[in-house]
Write a structure and sequence with these properties.
Elements: H1 3-14, H2 17-20, E1 24-25, E2 36-41, E3 47-55, E4 58-67, E5 70-71, E6 75-76, H3 78-81, E7 90-95, E8 101-106, E9 116-123, E10 126-127, E11 131-132, E12 143-148, E13 154-160, E14 170-171, E15 174-175, E16 177-183, E17 194-195, E18 205-210, E19 216-221, E20 231-236, E21 247-248, E22 258-263, E23 269-274, E24 277-282, E25 292-301, E26 311-316, E27 322-327, E28 334-340, E29 344-350, E30 357-362, E31 370-373, E32 376-378, E33 381-390, E34 400-405, E35 411-416, E36 421-427, E37 431-437, E38 441-442, E39 444-449, E40 458-467, E41 469-478, E42 488-493, E43 499-502, E44 512-518, E45 522-528, E46 542-544, E47 551-556, E48 564-567, H4 584-596, E49 601-607, H5 614-634, E50 642-646, H6 659-665, E51 667-674
Parallel strand pairs: 25-31, 25-32, 33-40, 41-47, 49-50
Antiparallel strand pairs: 1-24, 2-3, 3-4, 4-5, 4-6, 7-8, 8-9, 9-10, 9-11, 12-13, 13-16, 14-15, 16-17, 18-19, 19-20, 20-21, 22-23, 23-24, 25-28, 26-27, 26-29, 29-30, 33-36, 34-35, 34-37, 37-39, 38-40, 41-44, 42-43, 42-45, 45-46, 48-51, 49-51
Length: 675
């Protein structure tokens, strides 16, 4: 191989791919012997719609899809092509960046002029019947070759250029046009169009295409410095709204008519028309639009999973300015958002009567084009999880939930909790009052406001109910002096896991306590660690809010020689000395007393009533005293600190003249015999 040729080929390989690549016509089945005109591609670059006369010379719109790197066989868009008559002109298609709206011009008889701008909505894989864009844009004259900005706010199109005499301007055999723009107002309606200023319009322009960054405009023009007839030019709009001096896109322009540019959101590939065929060419970096990302997906009903129509609002995260509001396709929920580099964005998806969905993208340091798939679910109802909780012990409780609408007070639900929990399905779009009721509790209520922008469809709410209580007075004092004793009092609820502890911090006066107890429950009372005193013992150590006085006086005997303490709740089988299990609680108090006072010595005295012989009762009482002795010894109390002694029926505390009195005489006592 010639050395120079080799070096030339080697240099070619060193060039960037876009520079090595040449513009090429798209192969069949896109280009044919007929005319292919005005291509438009979707943001993802996978859908192309173009104008052609391949069907017996009639101008129609066809669609093709990019699959596995190849364009599919184009198919006619019948809903548009068959709308008018056989002689109607249909052309200049432009698909919105979200792929949901197709703009074009046509000479249908229901228009306002010679050719008008129309649009169709995508319904699944079909297009709706054409709709005229309206008289604000269309006039009795010619309007054509529309294109829509990625934010959906600005429509660009052309009208014929006329001279002072009203005649249409031409350059050679080419008809000249001016580029117009129309903007949507806050009400969503198109405002009066205006011509783009110089240096865009110089008198002979055509086929504008705004890129996905909303600031880069490619159009065709016949002007000084061009290569041929219509050439491709690029201009950018700055933040003040001024357009830069158009630059010739010399990498694509030829001596022929070069027009109808279209670029996907990725911004790296240009489609255009030369010699009645569709060409493609890589775009050099200096001609590329601002870097973008494309976000696509489906907006669906969270329960039915069917596509729904919604608004997609895009905000500047720093200024909260709304940058765009898009509508997705209601037939399947498909949406597309194109965002340009340089900002941090918040995207809000909303639909009346549904929850709102937010997400964020930070593009302040975007270094390349990217595509994101994000499916979104909106919900008609919110799952409101209500947890009914006892305020004092934080345990779940069974309650009834009554739901009414704030506006009008209409009751819409009544539901019972299970294990303290229930879930209510409440429609989005209203405010609700929930009243929570439970027996022996004070009702509580709260508001769940779903009338505004509800972001989450799951709400967790604790309904904390305060039990109905009454005040109860407890006094702990010295049996001999009547002086209040600052010992800890513990109340144990017999019905639920509730323990109330009263100590010195509970009262300003030692031994005098006031406590609120539940009206519905009973509490067992215990005095803890009564240092220097005998433990508290009661035949029935239970208090209740139903007690007549709601007052309990506990008198504790000081530990000194001769102190007597009746051991309540010590039980034996009839005629037996064997302790029952029910006696253990009382005997543990004795064990704690002996451990707390290591020098204490006691007599364990057992007594009977007068039933049976005196000798039998004496033996029985001694055996019972011994049983108590053995129990305490088993738990580590030294036997030298205890003296078991039975007294039989010899020391009754009341006459043995009734069953009630005999029960009082059958007792065990603890007598202090040494300190």
């Amino acid at each position: 191989m010639n050395k120079n040729i080799y070096l030339f080929l080697l240099c070619l390989l060193c060039l960037p791919a876009w520079l090595r690549a040449q513009k090429q016509p798209l192969p069949p089945p896109i280009n044919t012997a007929a005319i292919e005109y005005a291509p438009t591609v979707s943001a993802d670059g996978r859908t192309m719609i173009f104008e052609t006369n391949r069907n017996n010379g009639k101008w129609e719109l066809y669609v093709s899809y990019l699959r596995d790197g190849r364009w599919t066989n184009p198919e006619p868009i019948d809903s548009v092509n068959m709308y008018g008559g056989d002689t109607d002109l249909i052309g200049g298609p432009s698909i919105s960046y979200d792929g949901n709206t197709l703009y074009f011009f046509a000479s249908f008889k229901d228009g306002y002029g010679r050719e008008d701008i129309y649009y169709s909505r995508r319904i699944g894989d079909r297009w709706s019947k054409p709709q005229n864009i309206g008289p604000v844009i269309n006039t009795p004259a010619y309007e054509g070759f529309p294109c829509i900005s990625a934010d959906g706010k600005t429509l660009y199109f052309i009208r014929e250029s006329t001279g002072e005499d009203g005649d249409i301007l031409t350059r050679g055999d080419a008809i000249c046009y001016r580029i117009f723009a129309a903007e949507k107002g806050k009400d969503g309606q198109w405002q009066k169009p205006y011509p783009l200023p110089m240096p865009i319009n110089l008198g002979c322009e055509k086929a504008p295409r705004i890129m996905s960054d909303n600031v880069t405009l490619i159009f065709s023009s016949i002007r000084e410095g061009g290569i041929g007839e219509f050439d491709l030019y690029l201009s950018r709009r700055n933040e003040e709204g001024d357009w830069s001096n158009p630059v010739l896109m010399d990498f694509a322009s030829t001596p022929e008519r070069d027009q109808f540019a279209s670029v996907s959101a990725s911004g790296d590939l240009l489609y255009f028309v030369t010699n009645n065929d569709i060409y493609t060419v890589p775009i050099p970096p200096k001609f590329r639009q601002n870097r973008n990302i494309t976000i696509q997906g489906y907006i669906r009903d969270g329960e039915s999973k069917q596509g729904i129509g919604a608004h997609v609002n895009v905000y500047d995260a720093e200024t909260t300015e709304q940058l765009m509001q898009l509508e997705n396709n209601p037939s399947d929920g498909r949406y597309t958002v194109v965002l340009s580099e340089g900002k941090r964005y918040i995207i809000e998806v909303e639909k009346q009567g549904y929850t709102v969905y937010f997400f964020e993208f930070d593009l302040r340091k975007l270094d390349k084009y990217q595509e994101f798939e994000r499916d979104i679910e909106l919900f008609r109802t919110a799952d409101v999880h209500v947890n009914a909780i006892d305020r004092l012990i934080y345990e779940p409780l069974n309650a009834q939930i009554l739901v009414t609408k704030q506006e009008g007070g209409q009751q819409i639900a009544r539901q019972q909790t299970e294990n303290g929990r229930t879930t209510l399905k409440l429609p989005i779009g209203a405010s609700y009052r929930l009243k929570v009721e439970a027996g022996n509790y004070i009702d509580t209520s709260f508001v769940i406001d779903l009338s505004g922008k509800v972001r989450y469809n799951v709400v967790e709410k604790d309904a904390v109910l305060r039990p109905e209580t009454k005040e109860y007075e407890i006094i702990v004092k010295d049996l001999e002096t009547g002086e209040g004793l600052p010992f800890t009092v513990v109340l144990v609820n017999r019905s639920r896991n509730e323990v109330i502890t009263l100590d010195e911090s509970s009262s300003n006066t030692p031994g005098y306590y006031k406590v609120h107890i539940r009206e519905s429950d009973e509490y067992e009372l215990e005095v803890r660690n009564p240092a220097g005193y005998a433990f508290y013992s009661d035949k029935n150590p239970v208090i209740s809010a139903k007690d007549a006085e709601r007052k309990k006086v506990i008198e504790l005997a000081p530990l000194k020689i001769g102190t007597r303490l009746t051991l309540n709740n010590i039980y034996f089988e009839t005629g037996s000395a064997e302790l029952s299990d029910a006696s253990e609680r009382e005997l543990k108090k004795v064990i704690e007393l002996m451990q707390r006072n290591p020098t204490l010595k006691i007599e364990l005295a057992a007594h009977t009533d007068d039933k049976g012989s005196e000798a039998f009762n004496q033996r029985l009482s001694q055996a019972r005293a011994q049983s108590v002795f053995n129990y305490l010894k088993k738990f580590g109390i030294p036997e030298e600190r205890m003296v078991p002694k039975g007294y039989g029926e010899s020391q009754p505390v009341v006459p043995n003249d009734s069953d009630e009195n005999r029960a009082k005489n059958r007792r065990c006592e603890l007598i202090v015999i040494g300190i």
